[in-house]
Amino acid sequence: MRVTPLNFRFGPGIRLDVVSLYLIAYAAVLFGCIRIWSADPTWLYIGRDSDFSLWLARAYMDWAHPFAVTALNPFQGMGSMLMPINPYFNPGAWVFLTDLGLSTQFVLSMVVYFLEITVSCFALGRALGFSPAFSFASSIWLVILFFPPFNFVFGLQGVLATSPQWANTLALYNIILVLFVFVGDRTWSDRGFASAIAINGALVTCMLAAVLLCLLAAPFYNAGTMTGVVLLCGIVLLSSADRRQALWRMAAGLVLLVAFKALDIFQFYAAAKSFTARFAMGGANEMPLAQFHWPVEFSWRSAHDWLCAAAVLCSRLTFPGSLTGAYWLHAAILFGAVAVWWRMPPPLSRIGGWFALVWAAFLLFWFCAAFGIVTDVVISPIYVVVAMHPFWAFFSLFSLCLGVQFVGTRLMSFAPPVIVKRAVDTLPFVFPIAITIGALITASDYGAFIARSAPLTTNYIQRGAFDVRKSGPIVDRLRREIAIRPGDTFRGSVATIWGAKGGSLRKALGLPETMPLAPGQFETFIAKVGSATGNDHDLFDLWWFNIPTVSEYAQGISRQYMFYVSNFLIDAGDPNEMGVAFPRRANVAVLAAMGVRFIIIDRVLSDARLSLLVEEPIGDATLYLYEIAEPNLGTYSPTELEVDHGVDKLRAAVDNNPSILTSLAFVQSPIAGPFVPARSARMIFEKQGVRIVAASGGSSLLLVPLQFSHCLHATDRRVRLSRANLIFTLIQFDGALDARIDWKLNFWRNSDCRAQDVADMRSLGLLH
Q1: Which residues does 634 contact at the CB level (< 8 Å), separation at least 6?
Q2: 542 contact partners, CB below 8 Å, separation of at least 6
Q3: 476-503 per-residue burial string, b: 16 or more CB within 10 A, e: under 16
Q4: Among 27, 49, 229, 764, which residue has the least CB neighbours within 10 Å?
């Protein structure tokens, strides 16, 4: 057997070069991952956010166009924005549009993400200056740190298990960084100024395209986590080879900023933030600065929980098969970054040094936040952590390699020089072969172990299945009555009220009948109903069957919607949770005005407007389905208007008489009348908009259950749209009406409409 740096001869007629061996190793690792994922696919899509992504993969295709950025959503929150994930630009989501079994879809989506992550990480490693062998190893090491179930094995609270779309995001971030690393390279400058302008311009153009692609894939999630990419680009800038390259990179950043300004991207996100209830901060428009407190009462348990939930670091997890905690990882990252600074040539050495400083500062800051020394953290850790994963892999693996080198050197000191030389010569071949063997062993043994020892997640495979999600008497009735598809007439939505005071669920769970609910306690009721019926009767479990709900689950719930929930639909003392909007009180008149036709509740209701349709026992509790008489299906036609420049009058009027919403509309500016009631009104949800049909013997108004926004545009210019009762869309028309109302809000067109909405919130007193 003869070894050379370029090939490896196994015997007569068998000769493989390094590239072939690495491809074999890569295929073996992928095979091992597929074996493990197939053994127990329930590790791959865990929790509510994964469920959300699965539903969106189907729903977004039906209701939104590829470049819509945001779209009208008929399923929640009176037409909230369908915005979190755009599957048109996420290859890992395409498999969910096929007819394959759900387990197969799970595995295939992870294969797509595996390819995206490993290829982009390898390219980033090479661009930074690492060797091909080390870049290859880092890409595989990143799979171990980032992908389930491996992240659980090492005690890492991986974000990919609960939000798989982050893999596509991370791959795009890697591409952006690769392009930025090449900006200002001396090779381009040596060819002349014109050549440098052309090549660097092409790189910046590709960077802009990658950023836009990233924002289109997940407009709001990816915009937040792009904070990490900006930080890494700053490190690359500080590590420039010389002043000339630094200037080119600063020029590239300036060009991108100008492009973002031209596309109104900054205005788009600033207005969206101000309009969102999550950033209300007591009515303030600006996010507060970090606040420092001392002394504090240290609690290691709560600090650990905070750090783990933020995906920074965890102790050993309780998941079956978990081996370690993540503290060793951050020690290895910092040690490896310092070692790169000490041992590697520039500019890679400078990248290691700057990263060590930045990451140590972040860890210190987050530890202070976890212990309560710092409050009101401006940048949530998750916005930084996602983009950092490749650098975690590079620097922690560098630490491990130094450890192996140290041990190997000590052992080889006892070996003859010829053996040492042969070992060094064969290292490029031994490494991929070792990975191949390790992958095959893992595939045959550990996959089976995980499958045998994962009872905690065996139910998740049912949660996102289109074909196995259970229905039941109440859900069956709702499917027949109000399920909606593009082109269908809106027939009403459903309000699910769990944990109502005096309800059977409280009694079944041993909770006081009248005590206010605690934050997050809705999870207890959902779990009880879901385990008893196989369906939560709210949110995704109804959306799977195309049943619209008044409940909303989103990061961007509007201030106006939360005003209605917190003032009219919850009891005193119940929490306002900005990520979810659940009605907790059966305010029938308000719900009817909001388009609710059915109420699911766990106690008997007495109201002349309600009819009991279905009673479904679930062991020691009972679920009731009521129908509301004459709900607002786009049919309310008020004839009286009152100008109101604030929300106080609206709040007092509705508290005094909730039925006032059927006949009176509070508007921001006078509208000339008189008005006659409209006839034969109906609302038809279509892709990216809604169609309104009605008739009138004169001038009429329709108060439709659709959240008003200046981003709504009527195709018929004779139709006037305005805000009424803070949240509703008021349509003014004469004679026959058959008009489509389009939703238009994106980066490059009409982004100022959300700023107009913010101005409304300010004038009405919801924003200062």
Answers
A1: 490, 595, 681, 682, 683, 692, 702, 704, 705, 706
A2: 475, 478, 494, 496, 535, 536, 548, 549
A3: ebbeebbebeeeeebbbbbbbbbbbbeb
A4: 27
Query: How far is the C-alpha of 55 from the C-alpha of 159, rounded, in Å?
Result: 19
CB atoms closer than 10 angstroms to residue 749: 12
pLDDT of residue 228: 94
| Tens digits of residue pLDDT in 369-403 | 888 787 766 677 888 999 999 999 999 988 888 88
Contact residues for 333 (Cβ-Cβ < 8 A; gap 6+) = 359, 391, 392, 395, 396, 399
pLDDT for the residue 729:
96
Cα 337 to Cα 181, 330, 398: the distances in Å are 18, 10, 8
Peptide bond into 347 cis (omega under 30): yes
What is the spatial distance between Cα 733 and Cα 664, in angstroms, rounded to a whole number? Answer: 17
Burial of 158 (0-12, 13-18, 19+ CB in 10 A): buried
Q: 36: which 2 tokens?
A: 């493990």
Task: Catalogue the E-assigned strands of 468-551.
Answer: 493-497
Q: Give SS3 for 655.
A: helix
Q: Which of 551, 554, 535, 542 is nearest to 484 (CA)?
A: 542
Do residues 408 and 337 make contact, with C-beta atoms less than 8 angstroms apart?
A: no
Contact 473, 614 (CB under 8 A): yes
pLDDT at 464: 40
Classify 626 as helix, strand or coil.
strand
Looking at residue 276, the DSSP 8-state letter turns out to be B
Position 766 scores a pLDDT of 85
Q: What is the pLDDT of residue 530?
A: 87
* Domains of the chain and any CATH numbers: 40-414 (no CATH), 473-628 (no CATH), 640-763 (2.60.420)
Residues of the chain with pLDDT under 70: 1-17, 83, 280-298, 319-321, 376-378, 408-469
* Interior angle at CA 501, CA 500 and CA 505, nearest 5: 60
Q: Are 731 and 692 spatial neighbours (Cβ–Cβ below 8 Å)?
A: yes
Is residue 667 classed as helix, strand or coil in its secondary structure? strand
Q: Is the dihedral of CA 435, 138, 114, 8 positive or negative?
A: negative
Which string of DSSP letters, residue by residue, matches 299-355? Answer: -HHHHHHHHHHTTS--SS-SSTT----SHHHHHHHHHHHHHHHHHSPTTHHHHHHHH
- Asked whether the beta carbons of 541 and 551 are under 8 A apart, the reply is no
Model pLDDT, residue 288: 52
What's the confidence (pLDDT) of residue 733? 94
For residue 175, the Cα-to-chain-centroid distance in whole angstroms is 20
Using CA atoms, how far residue 502 sits from 299, 566, 738, 752, 760, in Å, is: 36, 20, 46, 47, 39
Tokens of 351: 């990248």
In angstroms, rounded to a whole number, what is the distance separating the alpha carbons of residues 539 and 552?
7
Distance, in Å, from the CA atom of 605 to the CA atom of 624, rounded to the nearest integer, reads 9
Quick check: helix, strand or coil at residue 577?
Answer: coil
Which pLDDT belongs to residue 339? 95
Nearest CA among 89, 113, 87, 103 for reference residue 39? 103
CA distances from 542 to 42, 84, 130, 466, 554 (A): 21, 18, 50, 11, 16
> Of 457, 340, 444, 436, which Cα lies nearest the Cα of 26?
436
Single-letter code of the amino acid located at 300: W
> pTM of this prediction?
0.89
Note the pLDDT of residue 446: 54
Can you give the pLDDT at residue 677? 93
Contact 493, 595 (CB under 8 A): yes
Residues 689, 741 contacting (CB under 8 angstroms) = yes
Residues 6+ apart with CB under 8 A from 279: 273, 287
CA distance 731 to 703: 7
